[in-house]
Amino acid sequence: MVVQRQASGRITWMDRGVLEQFRDGDALAVKAVYDEFGGAVYALSLSVIGDRDLAADSTQLTFLKAWRAASTYDPQREISPWLYAIARRTAIDIYRKRAREVVSEDIEIVSMPPGLDAAWEVFEVRAALDRLPDDERSIVKLSHLDGYSHAEIGDRLGIPIGTVKSRSHRAHQRLAEMLRHVVDT
Fold it and tell me: What does each C-alpha distance from 67 to 41, 64, 77, 111 come to in angstroms?
């Protein structure tokens, strides 16, 4: 196999026979392609995934997929774009799979039932809310529980936005005072 570097530094394959052998699934030709492009495929995988071990796995999987799909390769064309496309798709698949695993681990943590301390804190917050004056309590509930903005609360209650803001501010000051013992524990 003869490999030649162009002035730009790009490698071109002069022996199309090796690429034809690669297309036919020849193990030595696959090894030659791996030896030539393994580092570049690893670098591409690492840039997508950001993890060295997963990038190494991605590189191995890329060459396995390339070997399995070798019959679709046209030896009259450069192999690098074809190979890099496989590498990129493989790395993205691994990245997405890892992201799903991380999200599912987080969901399991979040879905655990609350402990006694958390139940006590919820009870204290609800009790403090119940002790607020009606006009302040309704603003806090509309804001925090229903997700309304100050303008939406004003429209809903028929009061100016400035009144909503001042009542919200007073309500939060009262809540902070009433719940100081929860924060200190």
Answer: 14, 5, 17, 43
Helical (H) or strand (E) element with 112? none
What phi and psi values does residue 90 have, to the nearest 5 degrees?
A: -65, -45
Structure pTM? 0.50
- The single-letter DSSP state of residue 14 is S
Neighbours of 67 (CB within 10 A): 17
pLDDT truncated to tens, each residue of the chain (185 aa)? 444 444 444 444 447 788 888 898 888 888 888 999 999 999 989 888 888 999 999 999 999 999 999 888 888 888 989 999 999 999 999 988 887 776 655 555 544 555 666 777 877 888 888 999 999 999 998 988 888 899 999 999 999 999 999 999 999 999 889 888 877 65
Residue carrying the six token digits 């495929």:
41
H helices then E strands: how many in the chain? 9, 2
Dist CA 153 CA 165 (whole Å): 10
156's tokens: 């809903």
Domains and CATH numbers, the chain: 3-110 (1.10.1740.10), 116-184 (1.10.10.10)
Beta bridge partners of 3: 13
The 3-class secondary structure across 65-78, one letter per residue, is: HHHHCHHHCCCCCC
